[in-house]
Amino acid sequence: MRQALIHQYCEGPGVVSAALAGATDEELDARPAPNEWSAREVVHHLADSEATSYIRLRKLLAEDDPVIYGYDEAEFARRLHYDRPIAASLAVLKSVRASTTELLRSLDDDDWARSGTHTESGPYSVETWLAIYAAHAHDHAVQISRARAAATPKVEAPASSAGGGSRVLRRMRLA
């Protein structure tokens, strides 16, 4: 199970990059709903989250019973100019994940048993950290795809339109 989670963690940046492939500025800035993040904002969140997770894991490994602090993600988004280009934030995601993957692969059983206390969720172990962050980029890749789709108007031909065929084919012809 642990090796599968490490593999999933390692693949996160590729999944995010695939979700962003070919994105236009309009797609990066579209919001699926008024209070939801755009794809651009999600990318910046991922970079900030990865930088935070990098320190969290290292504190768990290097300190005895560390306190792991939560942070206000929405406030980061408001104050850290999440409207900027995404290239540097994608590089942070990839680099931090690559470095941390190497570290994860070198841990022994004593390392995996280490833990501390998260200020918002209580007991927080290296195993907990991995379970959270293995899925994090994948979950946000889905969110990126949903946000990008918000920029694409859905055009449907009436069911009785000439040419027949399925709705999917009619959509393709209209595009």
Write the layout of secondary structure elements.
Layout: H1 2-20, H2 25-29, H3 39-62, E1 67-68, H4 73-79, H5 87-106, H6 109-112, E2 115-118, E3 122-125, H7 126-149, H8 167-174
Parallel strand pairs: 1-2
Antiparallel strand pairs: 2-3
Structure write-up:
A hairpin with a 3-residue loop joins strand 2 (115-118) and strand 3 (122-125). It is built from eight helices and three strands, in the order H-H-H-E-H-H-H-E-E-H-H. It is globular, with a radius of gyration of 20 Å. Residues 160-175 have low confidence and may be disordered. It has one domain: Four Helix Bundle (Hemerythrin (Met), subunit A) (Up-down Bundle). By secondary structure, the protein is mostly helical. Helix 3 (39-62) runs antiparallel to helix 7. A three-stranded mixed beta sheet has the order 1-2-3.
